[in-house]
Amino acid sequence: MQATAKDTAELRLGSLEELEKLRGELRAAEDPNQTRIIVCHGTGCIANGSAGVTEALKAALAAAGEDIEVMPGIKTTGCHGFCSRGPLVIIKPKNIFYQQVKPGDAEEIVQKTIKAGEMVERLLYKHPQTGETIETTEDIPFYAGQERVVLANIGQIDPTKIEDALRAGAYAGVAKALTNMEPKQVIEAVINSGLRGRGGAGFPTGIKWNLAAKHEGGQKYVLCNADEGDPGAFMDRSVMEGDPHAVVEGMIIGGYAIGADTGYVYVRAEYPLAIKHLEKALKDARAYGLLGENILGSGFNFDIRINRGAGAFVCGEETALMRSVEGKVGEPVPRPPYPSDKGLFGKPSVLNNVETWANVSRILDKGADWFAGLGTEKSKGTKVFALVGKVNNVGLVEVPMGIKLREIVMEIGGGVPGSDHFKAVQTGGPSGGCLPWQDADLPVDFDSLIAAGSMMGSGGMIVMDDRDCMVDVAKYFLGFLEEESCGKCFPCRLGVPRLRETLNRFSKGEGTVEDIDDLYSLAEAIKAGSLCALGGTAPNAVLSTLRYFRDEYEAHILEHRCPAGVCKDLITYSIDPEVCTGCRACARACPQNAITGEKKKPHTIDESLCIRCGMCFESCKFGAVQVQ
Q1: What angle do CA 404, 407, 410 make, to 5 degrees?
Q2: FRET partner for 189 with CA separation of 20 to 30 A, picked from 74, 89, 232, 244?
């Protein structure tokens, strides 16, 4: 059974039995053994042209006529995670994985794979280290090392069709909660699961809910923090784009548990596709009686509104977010009182992020014991990370808590490209810390990362190699936080710029070892005195790089040298005449015409003209350009 738009508008599920009957009909209508074509339509793949690939595949299928039967035609889904390989096309039921597909490949895919059952070899994945060709999704190390809970349906369902979500099990958790559990039992299940907030702080979710539930009667609210502001992070965006019903379902369960009838999703305005899919999910859920009044005939009323954020990083802090929803300036306020006592519009409120809400629906469906069996003793479940930077396999990964950094970067991530070495990984976004290769066997969980000088954060993970300067990295994150600070409290408003100014001097070879001691003192003052977590965690990048890479700081100050060759004031470029072939690639790349020499003879760089842009270094294929 595939409901049309008209059917959906008229159909309202009045009970658990009606929901399960519909789910059974939807599942029975789909033959799992029939050929299906799935195309990734996450933001990354769309940017790389997946919409054109879809249209080309449709045209190729139409041209093939009755010779080929594909069900349900072509399915477009959310992000499959393997962003660096998009656009992605998956052929079911064998899970054939085609990467970097172009519209011109469509006819060959249809004729060779769909019609003849053969592989298009050039579109298959090749292992970056071994060169091995791999045909199916489950055999690719990027996917094989993951354990998908939150991302389980993403890449499998069409996020714009509630029927697809229902077929995959959506709203089973809501049905269980509303028909078989009291609100107190729902909270106990979340507590017993060990779920901790995935937004950064890691506070136990069930305990937060219980604090709000203790306020009997009166208006209450639940909120979803979808204001994902970390540079390089796209976990929450991908969940909203690829499985919006998981977020909606989790919020309904949370509303029932604490006694709230209204929810708000605070989402970045820069996420148009996520907003579009959320709006469609809310509309369809209301039409099916899964959202709004008398959900599934239970007597429980709950609805959700969307608020668009203007991109202020500080609005990721819960009190600032709530002020923004109220139409006020997005600034944090002192706590206590905590939002569970006095939050949105002065009423008891619970705020969790996108990933947390998506976990709730899974916990209610599969049980607290199932979730508690994943991860570590104090960090249960899985965590979604945006794995980016100097790594072969860039993308979205979900792994069990407690996995080692080495496994994420070297196995799932495929290691560092080329001959460079894995130097460090920054976790937790701009408020996190940089951990060295020597800590590659560190378990990735809440407590281990904090003890190492970093944090889980919302799930950003940036890999760095030998060509990354840790002084420059710390300076970059401080610059971001300085720009995003609301300026309400003195420690953050004045202290963060002072930290950045000190590092700026270091990058020019100025300063003394005593200045490093001053950095520690200032960092501790900022942490102790800031009003919110933005200021309180701002020094983490400085403190962690000082802890693990102090030699780089001292090289800048004492030797007036940048070991990574990044800080322009401390480097010079030269050409080794013994290696230079006179190919003139560097001369063509130089924007200042600072490189001279005859063809097929060694070249030289005029230091008076060089602006240290590094174009000569990047363009030389023979290693003749040296950085000193």
Answers
A1: 135
A2: 244
Rounded Cα distance between 218 and 348, Å, is 9
Question: Is the confidence at residue 1, as pLDDT, over 70?
Answer: no
> Which string of b and e fits 125-151 if b means at least 16 CB within 10 Å?
beebeeeeebbebeebbbbeebbbbbb
Please enumerate in sequence order all residues whose Cβ is within 8 A of that of 431, keeping only pairs 6 or more positions apart, or say none: 200, 455, 457, 481, 533, 534, 537, 538, 540
d(CA 190, CA 411): 32
Helices 513-529 and 490-506 pack at an angle, to 10 degrees, of 160
- For residue 606 the two structure tokens come to 């005029």
Nearest partner of 285 among 247, 329, 232, judged by Cα: 247
What pLDDT was estimated at residue 8? Answer: 46
SS3 375: strand
For 383, what's the count of Cα atoms within 13 Å in the CB-facing half-sphere? Answer: 32
C-alpha distances (whole Å) from 161 to each of 3, 165, 166, 276, 319 are 9, 7, 9, 12, 34
- Confidence check: pLDDT of 9 > 70: no
pTM of the predicted protein model: 0.91
Measured in whole angstroms, the distance separating CA 149 from the mean position of its chain's CA atoms is 15
Burial class (CB in 10 A: 0-12, 13-18, 19+), 441: exposed
3-state SS assignment for residue 528: helix
Q: Which range among 162-171, 227-236, 334-343 shows the weakest confidence by mean pLDDT?
A: 227-236
Other Cβ atoms less than 10 A from the Cβ of 590: the count is 22
- Please tell me the distance from the alpha carbon of residue 90 to that of residue 72, in angstroms, as a whole number: 13
Nearest to 433 by CA among 523, 565, 316: 523
Tens of pLDDT, residues 431-444? 889 999 999 999 99
